[in-house]
Amino acid sequence: MGNLKTWLKKNTSTAILTVLFIVILVNKDAKAWLMRQVASTGILNSSISESKEIQNTTTKASYAGFSLKREDGTGIDSSTLQNKVVFLNFWASWCPPCRAEFPSVQKMYDHYKNNPDMVFLTVNLDDNAALGKSYLKEKGFTVPFLIPAGNIPDVLYNGSLPTTVVLDKKGEIRLHHKGLADYSKDSFYKQIDELLKQKL
After folding, report:
1. Nearest Cα to 198, choosing from 84, 60, 52, 82?
2. What does the CA dihedral 171, 174, 178, 184 come to, rounded to 10 degrees?
């Protein structure tokens, strides 16, 4: 016991860092908090790209076969996405990077939810949707809770969580970001505002 006390006195910072490391390894929220600190620097963020029409090529999202449903079982009509800026986020409650970026997704949703030209599709990919719903309730998030009602086109999602896609009013993919990002930055809002101003 005396040896342990002596070691702790000499290595206090090592002991504290070891405990913190273990907490971060086993606690999803602690892991998400650490990731959120990194994401808040903006170094992980992507930017919305220029329209590819300039290059005479377009990457348009096809809504054929892509269907989502709300928690009450009602479906999302893909025609409601036409001529809108669409923010599409694929996430799961067990995914630490998803947890890390979700406060920024919520903040962005709060900023734009009343804009008639903006649609938010936050798609939960938990094997048990109740886990995703429970996570949102526990954290007080109010983003739309959606689940797939069929296959998801590869052009939108191919297995990495989180994945975020932004479509312009013409249905072109202007952002396709795999991994953690911070969507609550003013610089990102300015890019979204530019898309919202786009004339058809």
Report:
1. 84
2. -110
Contact 157, 176 (CB under 8 A): no
CB-based burial of residue 102 (10 Å sphere; 0-12 exposed, 13-18 middle, 19+ buried)? buried
Q: Which two three-digit tokens encode residue 100?
A: 């890390």
State the DSSP code for 53. G
Q: How many CB atoms lie within 10 A of CB 150?
A: 11
Place of tokens 């630490």: 96
- Compute how many other C-beta atoms are within 10 angstroms of the C-beta atom of residue 140: 7
CATH of 52-197, one of 3.40.190.10, 3.40.30.10, 3.30.429.10, 3.40.50.2000: 3.40.30.10
Residue 57 confidence (pLDDT): 45
Model pLDDT for residues 146-179, shown as the tens digit of each residue: 999 988 888 899 999 999 999 999 989 999 999 9
DSSP of 97-117, one letter per residue? Answer: HHHHHHHHHHHHHHHHTT-TT
Residue type, 38: V
